[in-house]
Design goal:
Blueprint lengths: L14 E7 L15 E2 L2 E2 H10 L4 E8 L4 H11 L4 E6 L4 H11 L5 E6 L7 H14 L1 E7 L6 E2 L5 E3 L7 E10 H10 L7 H7 L5 E4 L10 H12 L7
Parallel strand pairs: 1-4, 1-6, 4-5, 7-11
Antiparallel strand pairs: 2-3, 6-10, 7-10, 8-9
Helix pairs in contact: 5-6
């Protein structure tokens, strides 16, 4: 079931999205990565642009660090986003920020969770996510691991080398039934690194779908340069 431009949400359902961008950018050398310029636009604008122009998504909540909320509202106004409402402050942990974001959504059936630090989102990935989520109610983007993986002790001693067959690197977007994700956030008390792990922790099956190797998460200043290359390649050259 394709969800191309102009199509309706799956089974007529309402789809909301939460862009999580409330981190501290601790590895960016003092740069606020969420508003770092890439090709003249703040990094977070790229993901927002994709969600704004993706027909099945009808509302977007942007979650930012408290100190950046006003700056985020200014961006929404400048870019004239119609779907982004509201901009809200996050919590102390990523999962706290996600919970605040999904609670800020108007009633919906499905929710897309995406890291604001992943600017190379595209409609194809969003389509695959919504399609995959129909099977189990939960789906996470990812890519097969290319490198050999080592399990290492705190003393940096190699413990073992797991078979990389079947190993995938998880990404966002991650797509869930709204009620399922809310239940997982209520039931899971341990700290997790993504929402799929939270849903897994309550015994629910999560489907993996193909993301993109270009869909990197900007964590260091070097990542900004790589993201710029990927985003620049999308710019159409006039014929």
């Amino acid at each position: 079931m394709a969800l191309s431009a102009g199509s309706q949400p799956p089974m007529g359902a309402k789809v909301g999205a939460v862009v999580v961008a409330a981190g501290t950018s601790s590895r960016m050398g003092g740069i606020d990565k969420i508003f770092a310029p890439i090709l003249g636009l703040p990094l977070v604008a790229y993901a927002l642009d994709q969600l704004e122009s993706f027909p099945p998504v009808t509302q977007v909540v942007l979650v930012l660090d408290q100190a950046s909320v006003e700056r985020g509202r200014e961006l929404v106004s400048q870019r004239r986003y119609k779907k982004v409402r509201p901009v809200c402050p996050g919590g102390s942990r990523r999962q706290d920020s996600v919970l605040l974001g999904i609670q800020a959504l108007e009633p919906c059936d499905w929710v897309v969770i995406h890291d604001g630090a992943r600017p190379c989102l595209d409609h194809g990935t969003l389509e695959r996510g919504l399609e995959s989520a129909q099977e189990t109610g939960a789906a996470v983007a990812g890519v097969p691991v290319k490198d050999t993986i080592k399990s290492v002790s705190p003393q940096q001693v190699v413990l073992n080398t797991p078979d990389r067959k079947g190993l995938w690197a998880a990404q966002t977007p991650q797509v869930f039934r709204y009620d399922l994700l809310l239940d997982a956030h209520t039931a899971c008390l341990e700290e997790v690194t993504d929402d799929a792990a939270m849903v897994e922790s309550i015994g629910h099956t999560v489907k993996m779908f193909l993301g993109s190797y270009e869909n990197l998460k900007v964590t260091t200043p070097e990542d900004l340069a790589v993201a710029e290359v990927f985003l620049n390649s999308r710019i159409k050259v006039p014929e």
